[in-house]
Predict the 3D structure of the following.
Amino acid sequence: MWSLIQVELYKIFRRPRTYIAFGAIAALIVVIQLGLKMDGNSYAAFLMKDINDTLTVDGKVLNGYLICYILLQLLLVHVPLLVALIAADMISGEANLGTLRLLFSTPYSRTHWVLAKFIAASIYTILLLIWLAFLALFVSMWIFGTDDLFLMKSNYVVLIEQGDVLWRYVGAFIFASFALLTVTSLGFLMSSLSSNSIGPIVGTMSAIVFFTILSTLNIPLFNVVKPYLFTTHMNNWKEFFDIKVNLNNEAIRGSILNIAKIKTSLLVLTLHIILFVTASVIIIKKKDILS
Amino acid sequence: MSLIKVQHISKQFGNLKAVDDLSFEVQAGQVFGFLGQNGSGKSTTIRMLLSLIHPSHGSIEIFGQSIQKNRAEILEQVGAIIERPDLYPYLSATEHLQLFAKVRKQKIASGRILDTLEKVGLAGRAQDKVQTFSLGMKQRLGIAIALVHNPSLIILDEPTNGLDPQGIADIRALIQYLAKDEGKTVFVSSHLLSEIEQLAHQILIIHQGKKMVEGNTKELLDPQKRIVQIKTMNDAGTLQVIVASSFSNYLLPRKEGIFLKIPTYEIPLLNETLIKAGVALLAIESKNALEDYFLQITSNA
């Protein structure tokens, strides 16, 4: 099995297309970091304009931790589209190329190949996330320095001590990996249904957009299905940055306000991954390889 | 010993019966020619041999084991190219062989990779990406992938497609070498009789998914069983002359053209009879039975 994963990883990283996502993420992050470096104080003033009269914040608001939070908010919505570019092409791309029959006429079973391909696509996804984390978190910390994390929520503010921030990012990135692996597995399922490259990529992107709209619409009919949609849970990495307060309204260090929500989201995302991958294996096992 | 034993396999795609109750056996050490027009069911049969598609009916045994039940053990000893030489355009010839060597359970030495590229005449382009290869070079690389793990059964689907005459001769020589010197069993398909008859010990012709004829190549190409086609300016008149002559027993029923199955030694006499009867003779073309049969299938299709 390890040989198959190595083969699949080799193929992924020998394709020029693979590096588009790494390049796109780097370009976006660098542009945003540059913009905030040049004109960050105006941006911070704009963020604080509603609370300036009631609250005075000491220290550096626009620090590496806040920049990372801003970047994640902006990018984690779009990274799934970049993930789909590779994951949705893993099987259908080979069917289109005609190489799937070469792979499937080797002694390894189709289940082995499908799982190896999924694991390779997952490794790619996680590497993409590590790249994102490196640029968004560590490079921002290096450029902007560190201080307490000050976040503006819809009707309250959260202040997290700087010593209490890093582990939350670790948690957020681990959570984000589950969210992106769900996209990987969805792309994979789409890929198993088709023999051309473009269809599954567009299909995966369309499914993400469609379910994201359903998840955000506040219509009673849709509220019934919302808890079961993976898109409802994908953005819950933000829960790592909501903390409990004591009776004096002081933040409790090391706490998470709604850990149950994170657990539920992880469970729903994991079930989606299992469902999508199992469906892919069943489809491929039954399929006649004609292309 | 039968290396491949196919029994009554059929494959249905919707309303189309691509393979219809096909049975045959391939003996160890043989070059087995699988002949048929494009779309006759050759590739579907080969895909069933490699378990890429599942037969609707029937059974396939290779090395005495069922392909459905012992797929991994069987395919470990099989090398194949199927239809077109589709490869990864962004990888080199060497990288292809390294990747496919990696997915074999046995360890394949790097020297074997170079030897295999040498064998198919690609050693000089080993490091070049496949996107720079001609169709013929891709075909050679496809064959190299089939050979790299030293299989005992080699299945080649139209291996000379896209090759120039020299390339065709090279592949033919390679197949003969593999069978004769390395003792491999080679199952080779083609839509060209001329290709198969020079290579195969045994030939099977398939048409519209059905077996049409099967036999030993030497017997099928027996010069004593010649079939001649008489080409004239007036087929109807010529036919009357033949019917009235002692050659009438040799006439073969055909929709078009005049064909006789005649001993070779009687062909000069036939020629003389037709000339004497004033037939405006254009040619007497002699074919072997297999060629005639194949052409008959082709012309009726």
Q: What stands out?
A: DSSP finds eleven helices and 14 strands in chain B. Chain B has a mean pLDDT of 85. Residues 165-180 of chain B form the longest helix (16 residues). Chain B has two domains: 2-215, 226-300.
